[in-house]
Amino acid sequence: MQNVNKSEATSPLTTRFRSDTTMELSLAHPVIKAFMCGSLSGTCSTLLFQPLDLVKTRLQTSQTGTQPGSSRLGMMTVFLHVVKTERLLGLWKGVSPSFVRTIPGVGLYFSTYYTLTQHFIPEGSPGALEAVLLGGGARTVAGVFMLPVTVIKTRFECGRYSYGSVTGALRSVCSSEGPAALFSGLMPTLLRDVPFSGIYVMFYSQTKTSLPQEIRESHYAPLANFACGVLAGVLASLVTQPADVVKTQVQVNPQLRTSEAVRIIYMEHGLQGFLRGAVPRSLRRTLMAAMAWTIYEQMMARIGLKS
């Protein structure tokens, strides 16, 4: 048995297979590597933080806040209600369109960011304004391409639609509302995502650059990068929260225009209405972005590339 294992380990076929695999990885285009690293990082964070996204969507689309005595509807109330009525797995409702959106979407974001960085800033770290433009540009590309899946994901999570699958939902929307419905909420989506990404990348890159060199080169670098990501995520989430509320309303009610959604939110809930779902969204976006960037940068470093 030992002789067989030894011959298999040293056989020409095995050696050739390993050589071909290594050559394929080394010949892969850097943009493809960035896409793969981004997709894997986004997949991990999406699966972990999907319940926060569902709770945020339910808070923003709930009508109970307009009734007397029910204006204090909070995150834990929605969380417990979902678990009670839809069981624990109900918190992951909408995870399938989230994956369909995240795996290519985050990969597209990071590969676009990498391409822009290599083209405009081939060496060194971007400045504050450059970071805003890089993050905003990458998010614009990813946001426009993935908007149809974002619309479906929002409808899955709000609980008002009984779609069986992502493809079935896409067909249903196209047949009953027209393909244009898949791009509902484009403007508030861009007004939310582009500033978020720009602000996030700016704060993240600047705080990471300000770290002492001994920390950046130590084993604690991933933890320090994660902490920088958390700080950047909190600031970016709070700035873009009103646009997220408007985006959710337009995508759940595609007959609404952006201006109409703004007016309805203000009339029904006042200025506080634009902060509905701020806590779960801030938690999710902050932790997702921090985790995605940390995993992405570690993977890029391991394959010999830098973002």
Can you describe what's shown?
This protein is 76% helix and 0% strand. The protein contains twelve helices and no strands. The protein has helices at residues 2-9, 12-27, 30-61, 75-86, 95-120, 128-158, 166-176, 186-209, 213-216, 221-252, 258-269, 278-302. Helix 8 (186-209) packs antiparallel against helix 10 (221-252). The longest helix is centred in the N-terminal third of the chain and has 32 residues, at 30-61.
Question: What's this entry about, in short?
Answer:
The protein is mainly α and 307 residues long. 76% of the residues lie in helices and 0% in strands.
The number of distinct β-strands equals 0
**N-C termini distance:** 47 Å
H-E order: HHHHHHHHHHHH
**How many helical elements?**
12
* Alpha-beta classification: mainly alpha
Percent strand = under 5%
Indicate the radius of gyration in whole angstroms.
Answer: 22 Å
Keywords, please?
307 residues; mainly alpha; 76% helix; disordered N terminus
Topology:
Layout: H1 2-9, H2 12-27, H3 30-61, H4 75-86, H5 95-120, H6 128-158, H7 166-176, H8 186-209, H9 213-216, H10 221-252, H11 258-269, H12 278-302
